[in-house]
């Protein structure tokens, strides 16, 4: 089984761009704002040749190349078909080793002598408003550093290395035309690659970069769709050459809210980006090595290290930092769907973003209040409605278009499944994100500023339980009138079966509501809102008690939905406890504490669920988030693992623990690997069923706080303060 | 045989953009700077439905659509396969009529009741430096107006019309989000379509625009990759609705010479373009109708009308007007190759551009002098070279990248065929374009400004004949040293066989040289450069005499190359006379005049060549520009026809005349039609062999000056002054 063939994002911070390669036999390359790796169609030529008489040995990042020469010559004599490949052969998975690190992706071959690495040297990014120019250029450069090397110390003749791109429809231009200090090629003003000019460096461009038939005065053919940098390492030497992949999109690229990439404030254009990438190359290497070392020393097993690394790569590829007259504008794109700041992803990215760029959480929450909040009515019956309260849209738009105020791109009317409204879900997400941000970042001023919004959220939660206080038990009973005739609210688990999709009387959502009340209680205490704090605490207790009563006496399971005799078993039953755990609210997770009875019942639920045939897939051994669906989501498995390993380590039987390997293999094989990190996965086959090229996997970031299991407070605090991968 | 299935460019002036549709069963749509129609992958839905119970009847501009819903729902229940098409059927070529006009492309169906038309209302564009804002907005708007209509006066129930786009990878956004006066959709800031909001107009967006399952508060689903405008015409009414397709590319898009689109100076963005297109729609319709009427009344037969119309469409699609600190920057892209201002195309676009935007010729010539001129040495033998003279590069770059000063993207060293240098060819092209521009536009001041350049060109021509005056006979004998070791110059006919490709001793190039000396003689007279004028006249006479001696006594043919016993027969033998004819230099084309003997010999050559088996393809009946190659070029056929119909009408036997239909059918069938106007064509099969999506066909513009055959001077003058299609 080949475990090295998977695409990965290799991305700058906030550029919504990626140099995507890694899946065997597949082109890729420069991907600007694409929804799938398959949309980048560049052949990427990376490899070495030990002497001119030898074949090139190339990593498998291309399809058999064709020559475009015939388009010009019109002569049948030049075959339009595949070029004979006598000049190169492809390294198979047996020939190379691949190591995906937190901030790097490295391929080695030829007994480790050959190496190629793409770096993603992420750092803690302070509020962009506070960056000086030097910091901004280092942190926001839309560049992916890389290197290529060969150890020819034992060699008898020179070795050549190649890094090149082939795309007949899009010929690159020689960068030497514009800057003497850049050796490389670019596609218009938009993207390109470069190294430092050097006597060991040679440029090539033509219809066939391995055997250029036509050469102009400097040895290139600028109409040719293949370009490359060649490097020569004399016998007896070992050399590593720096490379940089750069992106640049100028002008206003978003609509609805018009904005330009933040980096355009600090860079004059692509050449400037590439030059910066080369001049800062050593520092980027150092930073990437630090991130790699932190993950490597983390204590996670190799499978979980891989899963977290792959998730981090895909998260950064989805980030987009814009700027307009109002200042910075933060966006995370929802993978292949490219919805903007989908709120049920924001709440999952929360933990990673708090460690690395907490202002992004804050800014997103503020934009939800300013533009994407709404106040609704609740459906009582077909003809009657009553006042509801505040909530927030599912997302802020799609594919660089911000939808109008108060409206998402996703939510539609008169539906009971996918594409219906998520009013309760997003209300909880604002509360959870806001309280977690303020507490983790210690930003009490911000919390004070949003005091009224928090109070309004509490009131809205209450009214959705029941407008009449005496009829409340803590659980959502009403749908937003936004759902329209016959419609009802859904949750983020919309595409699963009804066990998770329906919002009303939903176990997952009810426990998440409990988490929200716990956080509200603490937040109101911080704000000296004693009455509200007491109310929140009382509501949490009420809800916990209500929930405890929902267990099935005959089975010891909680039903996924408290109606119609539903008997699905779900792991996200405990998701709502992730927030109190993360924030170190020990009283909320103390098995002998206020929620002790509920926690014990949930513990039994989880222990029974983590069995083959229930929430462990009998065939694959992977975790299923619902016993009645084969659609399982990696990001949510990771989140459930965080809670379960902390609260119910005894539930982690051998089968449950062995699943780490299964989850990693899903991502490392073609079913998911062809689309970088995938979230929705068929638990039987390991094939992705949606949510490809997806950022949400960074919930796995929480794993770093679970192994081993010391006191939560001392364990979590440093992570939020020092932003290193080893907490 | 289906003669309606061919792609056409539908393009604004100078936007390097096209809304390309027309080839049966093929998607297309918004194409920004693409090299082939096949790169635009939007399904275009255009059609009508007579009552809700009926199927939609759609023009064949799409592939069977698939639904993207499954990507979101992850459920196998929603088939990923082709949608059942019970809701629409496709109009076949038997069901619709298509009329391509000079400035319009119209489809009619349902007994003429249904109509859809894309307009290309081109006008005479004055020097962009002189345009006021209103003119600039009308003339430079990157917009393609269109209309859709139905005559429901006899109908009993409402009829619906649809215009929509389907591209799951690129969902459009509703324009109503940004402007209340636009009903339609846009793809980011880059392109879109709109009509005027009206109670008969409905918007749709979703995964399936014919049966949208999911609707938000306003009936759309913004994540859906299909969008459309629906129009309703009540029974008893006839209505035509305006549509506009718009493009917008902001920022610097060229490199080497950085520049932005000129229209960005006059438009704030896409919405502004669309609004302008709608508010000016009536005027655009009027202008398009005028252009159509002028061609229709021209006296050309239907086949030649079609060929000219199709050529004009592809020419405009290749035009690109930029602007930077130095002012306007004119570019014509070389079709699928996208080389910039290829000089051997400039000389062929000359006649069309002089009629419609003569400053474009002037500006291009100036840029060739300022940046793309060079002075070379000539190869004497392998080890010796001597001073040559001025010439110009083949092109100015490729795909929005301007190559460095003095260098083209195309020309390579040490070659004897394609991709070699074209030093002599481009020297002639500068002389011919400059003298023709100055004479036709009456711009003597410009000619004076370039006096030294013209003198330098004459000297360079002489030295390439022979550095020693006494050894000159007028014919090129030396290759530029730029060709490098073993290399030799080629001509624009590079991809044909050696009969046309080699520059030295080349019949085509020698007659073109004669044309250049004739124009130089007149130009120097205008400049009062008497000595130079006399020298040019004497050289022309010498060359004519030399040429007359090249005829083969045994056959009456001229050989294509005066060496190695070449016996290819070529039609471009007379191409060089196009310029004196066009400029009305009667003394140069008088059969009893100074070149009488040569003209008579060439007449016999042409009459013998225009025979099946020589330069008329035995199988297809089409013209072959060389008897020994099946690669024939439409633009050059058109140019040869212009000369032949004027000088040798008696050579136009029945077979030669019947070929118009053949040439038109080549472009109207799949072999060429799938790529809009194609230039290089296999004369046997009618399949394109290169030069697809190509602007050069506008040499056919000259046809308007050949039928009937009155005095040249009075016939040509008005064309250059009034710029109407009927001269």
Summarize the topology.
2 copies of one chain form a homodimer.
Chain A: E1 17-20, E2 29-32, E3 43-50, E4 56-58, H1 69-73, E5 88-90, E6 96-100, E7 104-109, E8 114-119, H2 133-140, E9 143-151, E10 159-166, E11 173-174, E12 183-187, E13 191-195, E14 201-206, E15 226-233, E16 238-247, E17 260-261, H3 270-279, H4 281-296, H5 302-317, E18 319-324, E19 327-332, H6 343-356, H7 358-370, E20 373-381, E21 384-392, E22 397-398, E23 401-402, H8 423-441, H9 444-449, H10 451-465, H11 498-501, H12 507-526, H13 530-548, H14 578-583, H15 586-589, H16 596-609, E24 631-633, H17 634-647, H18 654-668, H19 670-673, E25 680-682, E26 688-690, H20 712-722
Parallel strand pairs in A: 4-5
Antiparallel strand pairs in A: 1-2, 3-4, 3-10, 6-7, 7-8, 8-9, 9-16, 10-15, 11-12, 12-13, 13-16, 14-15, 17-18, 18-19, 20-21, 22-23, 24-25, 25-26
Helix pairs in contact in A: 5-18, 6-7, 6-8, 7-8, 8-10, 8-12, 10-12, 12-13
CATH architecture of the largest domain in chain A: Alpha/alpha barrel
How many beta strands in the DSSP annotation of chain A?
Answer: 26
Strand content of chain A: 15-25%
The termini of chain A sit apart by: 34 Å
In short:
Chain A is α+β, with helices and mostly antiparallel strands and 727 residues long. Helices cover 32% and strands 19% of the residues of chain A.
């Amino acid at each position: 089984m080949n475990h090295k063939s998977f695409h990965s994002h290799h991305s700058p911070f906030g550029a919504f761009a990626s140099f995507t390669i890694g899946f065997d036999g597949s082109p890729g390359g420069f991907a600007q704002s694409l929804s799938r790796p398959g949309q980048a169609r560049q052949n990427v030529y990376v490899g070495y040749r030990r002497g001119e008489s030898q074949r090139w040995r190339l990593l498998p990042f291309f399809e058999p190349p064709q020559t475009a020469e015939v388009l010009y010559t019109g002569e049948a004599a030049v075959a339009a078909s595949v070029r004979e490949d006598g000049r190169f052969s492809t390294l198979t998975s047996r020939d190379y080793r691949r190591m995906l690190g937190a901030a790097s992706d490295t391929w080695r071959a030829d007994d480790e002598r050959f190496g190629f690495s793409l770096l993603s040297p992420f750092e803690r990014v302070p509020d962009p408003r506070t960056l000086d120019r030097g910091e901004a250029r280092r942190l926001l450069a839309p560049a992916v550093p890389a290197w290529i090397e060969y150890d020819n110390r034992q060699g008898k003749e020179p070795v050549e290395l190649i890094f090149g791109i082939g795309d007949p429809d899009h010929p690159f231009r020689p960068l030497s035309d514009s800057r003497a200090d850049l050796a490389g090629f670019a596609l218009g003003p938009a993207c390109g690659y470069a190294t430092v000019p050097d006597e060991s460096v040679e440029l090539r461009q033509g219809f066939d970069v391995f055997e250029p038939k036509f050469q102009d005065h400097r040895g290139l053919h600028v109409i040719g769709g293949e370009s490359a940098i060649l490097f020569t390492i004399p016998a007896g030497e070992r050399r590593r050459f720096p490379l940089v992949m750069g992106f640049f999109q100028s002008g206003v690229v978003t609509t609805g809210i018009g904005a330009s990439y933040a980096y355009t404030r600090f860079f004059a254009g692509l050449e400037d980006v590439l030059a910066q990438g080369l001049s800062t190359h050593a520092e980027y290497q150092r930073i990437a090595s630090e991130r790699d070392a932190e993950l490597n020393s983390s204590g996670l097993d190799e499978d979980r290290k891989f899963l977290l690394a792959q998730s981090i790569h895909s998260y950064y590829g989805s980030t987009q930092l814009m700027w307009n007259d109002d200042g910075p504008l933060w966006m995370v794109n929802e993978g292949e769907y490219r919805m903007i700041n989908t709120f049920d992803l924001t709440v999952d990215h929360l933990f990673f973003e708090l460690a690395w760029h907490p202002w992004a959480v804050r800014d997103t929450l503020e934009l939800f209040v300013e533009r994407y909040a709404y106040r609704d009515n609740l459906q009582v019956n077909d003809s009657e409605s009553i006042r509801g309260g505040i909530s927030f849209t599912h997302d802020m738009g799609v594919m660089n278009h911000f939808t109008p105020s108060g409206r998402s791109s996703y939510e539609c009317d008169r539906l009971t499944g996918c594409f219906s409204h998520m009013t309760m879900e997003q209300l909880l997400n604002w509360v959870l994100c806001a309280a977690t941000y303020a507490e983790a970042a210690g930003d009490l001023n911000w919390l004070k500023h949003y005091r009224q919004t928090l109070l309004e959220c509490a009131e809205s939660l209450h009214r959705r339980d029941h407008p009449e206080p005496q009829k409340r038990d803590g659980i959502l009973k009403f749908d937003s009138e936004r759902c329209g005739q016959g419609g009802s609210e859904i949750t983020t688990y919309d595409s699963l079966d009804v066990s998770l999709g329906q919002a009303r009387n939903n176990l997952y959502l009810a426990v998440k509501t409990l988490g929200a009340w716990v956080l509200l209680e603490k937040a109101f205490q911080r704000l000296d809102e004693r009455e509200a704090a007491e109310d929140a605490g009382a509501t949490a207790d009420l809800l916990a008690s209500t929930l405890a009563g929902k267990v099935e006496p005959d089975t010891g399971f909680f039903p996924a939905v408290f109606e119609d005799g539903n008997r699905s078993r779900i792991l996200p039953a405990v998701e709502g406890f992730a927030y109190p755990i993360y924030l170190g609210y020990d009283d909320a997770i103390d098995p002998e504490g206020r929620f002790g009875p509920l926690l014990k019942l949930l513990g039994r639920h989880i222990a029974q669920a983590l069995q083959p045939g229930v929430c462990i897939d009998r065939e694959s051994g992977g975790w299923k988030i619902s016993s009645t669906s084969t659609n399982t989501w990696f990001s949510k498995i990771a989140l459930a693992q965080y809670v379960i390993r902390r609260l119910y380590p005894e539930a982690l039987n051998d089968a449950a623990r062995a699943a780490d390997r299964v989850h990693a293999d899903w991502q490392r094989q073609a079913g998911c690997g062809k689309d970088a990190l995938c979230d929705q996965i068929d638990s039987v086959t390991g094939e992705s069923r949606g949510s490809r090229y997806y950022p949400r996997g960074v919930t796995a970031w929480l794993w770093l706080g679970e192994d081993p299991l010391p006191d939560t407070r001392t364990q979590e605090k440093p992570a939020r303060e020092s932003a290193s991968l080893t907490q």
